[in-house]
Amino acid sequence: MGLPVSRKCFTRGTLVQAFMDYLIQVTHTCPRRSLYLSPASHLSPRMQYLLDYYDKFICPVLVAFDGPTNPYRMHVMHLAMRSEGLRNAIAALSTNNIRMRDGTETRRLGFQQKMGTSPVLPDHAYSQMTTQELREMQGEPTPEEQRYKATSIAFLNSQLADPTSAKDDSVLATLLILCLFHVCDSGFSKFKTQLAGVQKLLGMRDRSVESNFVGWIEVFFTWFDVMTSTVNDRETQMQGDSLDMLNLSADLGALEHLAGCEGRLFKLIARLGRLNLLSQNRPVRELDPGRNTTPRPTPQIARTKDYYSLHYEQIDGNGWGTPVTGPASHSSPSFDPGPSPVVDDQRTAFWTEWHEIRTRLQEWELDSAGGLPLPSAPSCGAASSTLALSPAQAALLHISESFRYSALLYTERLAHPTLPSSALNFQNLVAQGLYHISQIGVTSCVNKFLLWPLFITGTECVDDQHRAIVRQRCMEIQRESGFFNNLSGLEVLERVWTENDERSEGQVQEMPGAQAFRWRKAMDRVDGEYIM
User: Fold this and answer.
1) Mind listing the pLDDT tens digit for each residue in 363-391?
2) Among 449, 529, 458, 457, which residue's Cα sits nearest to residue 493?
3) pTM, whole model, 2 decimals?
4) Residue 297: its pLDDT value, please?
5) Which of 165, 288, 382, 455 has the fewest Cβ atoms surrounding its Cβ within 10 A?
6) Tens digit of pLDDT for each residue in 175-203?
7) To 5 degrees, how large is the angle CA 139–CA 145–CA 148?
């Protein structure tokens, strides 16, 4: 029986105000106890508070629609009651997130002014700050935060050294929380190393035993693997049933409810990292024809419209953890079949996969949960057809379309690696993508999942207004969630924009096999990956 997903929407304003009220209360009183903390009387008041903070203020921003079956709450909190390592990981994440939010939300809302330490930061002042100024506002990690993280890793290493303990669910949960710690702290980590460890641990388990928890762990790491691979020049690392497991969405809550991206569309995006390598004539894994399929929607009436030699004893903390107006375009989401390979272009495998993925992206449409067709998604130049949708349906439609247009833009850049961003074929897709992003309010439940579309679309922005929209939205998501990967991604975009402005926009002869994406040069770190 499927687990329902609550439709309760936490807006940025209500979430932060609740946080403010809660923080003021716990400053003078003992922390409130959630349902999960009732058997935790042996824990210190501070630890109870940090676990409660995770329950009430981090879990809601990790899913599109929060509720009692939120997996970050349902699967993690009861494990934390019996796992000291997991509790310390949660405490590290909570203290980090409090620091990140304290540098933005609480100062902006005047909490520290009440405490006599800092003035209010008005909205207009915040929006005009640079990413470096925002980074400086976060301050440095506190000794408490560092202690929780180090303690968690010590317990984790102890469990991993014991083959029996390594199979405990709390180990996988600890890895997940430490991954979130790095997303929150910097948006940068040795993610491939972590994925290798997760795959090793999953391989030790009896996969004939069905487990919603293990299924959710695979969903989590596969999501980050896919989104990270597309911007870090690699294929996805999670193999086997990792994408097929999305068929378990009836037991996990539909993917769009957990992460804002519909499952069939996600499987197409999962192929983009491989496509990028093929475009550069770089080696890729052999495909399993039986698994490399992306399901098409049920036909409807036409509508208008390998394990890395990981040494567990040497794990370190970094190893476990980034309204638009425009020219009227096509009134329906269909495009030209795409460019044909130039005469001397021998990348047959690339073009074969390119055309297949492109066609699937053009044909994709969002199916409603009830099986009834949704209205066609409007383009930036067409009248809105979303009036008949509920706010939740409209939000899912627009965020899915923002992912789709970003994926189309990704394929367009692979087809034209040296064409200037100002070219009309890029700007039409930029305008469409930003249109759908702009239809998602900053207080929407799905707003926090826009980083990948913002990053892909933002890379090709040449108009100052378009860049301002991307910049402001990244900052708003940071304010809502306190996760610094949003600003890390924006920092990369700022470097890309500066470089694009300095480069000549003249037509350049295309050379098959060139590096297509401008962000690779702007990502100047080589000891890890940006997490989007």
Assistant:
1) 999 875 434 345 556 665 544 455 677 88
2) 458
3) 0.79
4) 45
5) 288
6) 999 999 999 998 877 888 888 889 999 98
7) 170
Distances (CA, A) of 22 to 31, 142, 191: 9, 21, 34
CB-count burial class (<10 Å; 0-12, 13-18, 19+) for 377: buried
Residue 89 pLDDT greater than 80, yes or no: yes
CA 439 to CA 398: how far, in whole Å? 7
In the chain, helix, strand, coil percent, each to 5?
A: 55, 0, 40
Q: On the CB side of 92, how many CA atoms lie within 13 Å of its CA?
A: 29
Q: Which residues contact 77 (CB under 8 A, 6 or more apart)?
A: 34, 36, 51, 54, 55
Contact of 497 with 457, CB cutoff 8 Å: no
Whether 379 contacts 339, CB under 8 Å: no
Amino acid at 189: S
Q: Please state, in angstroms and rounded to a whole number, the distance separating the CA atoms of residues 259 and 305.
A: 26
**Six-digit token pair at 473?**
């939205």
Contacts of 423 (CB under 8 A, 6+ apart): 416
CA-based nearest residue to 493, from 280, 180, 187: 187
Q: What does the DSSP assignment read for 7-40? A: -B---HHHHHHHHHHHHHHHHHSPPPP-GGGTT-
The 10 Å Cβ neighbour count of residue 32 is 13
Cα pseudo-dihedral 72, 74, 75, 76, rounded to 10:
60
Of 278 and 300, the structure prediction assigns the larger pLDDT to 278
**Tokens 């996805």 belong to residue:** 236
Whether pLDDT at 440 is above 50: yes
Per-range mean pLDDT, top range of 334-338, 361-365, 522-526: 361-365
Six-digit token string for 301: 């009436």
Half-sphere exposure (Cβ direction) of 46: Cα atoms closer than 13 Å: 7
Single out the residue of 262, 222, 254, 251 nearest to residue 239, CA to CA.
Answer: 222
Residue 373 bridge partners (DSSP): 367
Alpha-carbon distance of 15 to 174, in angstroms, equals: 25
**What distance in Å separates the CA atoms of residue 274 and residue 150, rounded to the nearest whole number?**
36
- Please tell me the least confidently modeled range out of 73-77, 250-254, 344-348, 418-422: 250-254
